[in-house]
Amino acid sequence: MIANSARVVVNNPAFAGFTHSHQAVFRIILLEETSINNRCNMKKINILYWTFTGLFALAMLLSGIQNALVTPDSVAILNHLGYPEYIIPFLGVAKILGAIAIVVPGIPRLKEWAYAGLFFDLTGATYSAIMTDGLQPPMAGMLIFFGLLALSYTYYHKRQRALLAHPVTHGTPSVVA
Question: What ranges in the chain are assigned the alpha helix state H?
């Protein structure tokens, strides 16, 4: 993208009459405008990513804590669904670890596994509820969690692509010849 902006100046007939030093100034201006646009887009992606990820991680963390502590509510729900009591703390710890993994930066492979595990947890819970009680209107609330998961995952990948395409540089942009 930055190299393309520099080529616009060099290859554009409108800039042909300018000296190389003037063209260099135009290149710096174009690079700075590109950098500003990239920062604004990256800021929007970051805000959306952290909003969706924070809400989803919080929901999974709270659910996981309730399961890990084997509260009477979690025992009643999972017993109603036909699960044994010994599985409840395992599911809780798995949810807690998954919630932590999706918010900790720098571990992309673990993050992918965490997203997959949390997706399977939500899918299994929804399937179990449908098989036990049939399709009930309150189950539509699960769409909120699936939506947060999908949005968090989507913006995680948008953020990764943006970081790869426009690495964070400190200081002024370099001039591309």
Answer: 2-11, 20-68, 72-80, 87-103, 108-133, 142-165
- Determine the 3-state secondary structure of 175 from DSSP: coil
Provide φ and ψ at 89, rounded to 5°: -65, -30
Structure tokens at 140: 């539509």
Q: What total of structural domains would you count in the chain?
A: 1
CA 110 to chain centre: 13
Range of the domain at 107: 54-165
Does residue 68 lie in a domain region? yes
CA atoms within 13 A on the CB side of 169: 13
Name the residue among 123, 53, 113, 63 with its Cα closest to residue 88.
63
Give the model's pLDDT for residue 14: 57
In degrees rounded to 5, what are phi and psi of residue 106?
Answer: 90, 10
Position 91 in a domain: yes
Q: Is the pTM of this model over 0.85?
A: no
Q: Which residues of the chain have pLDDT under 50?
A: 1-9, 171-177
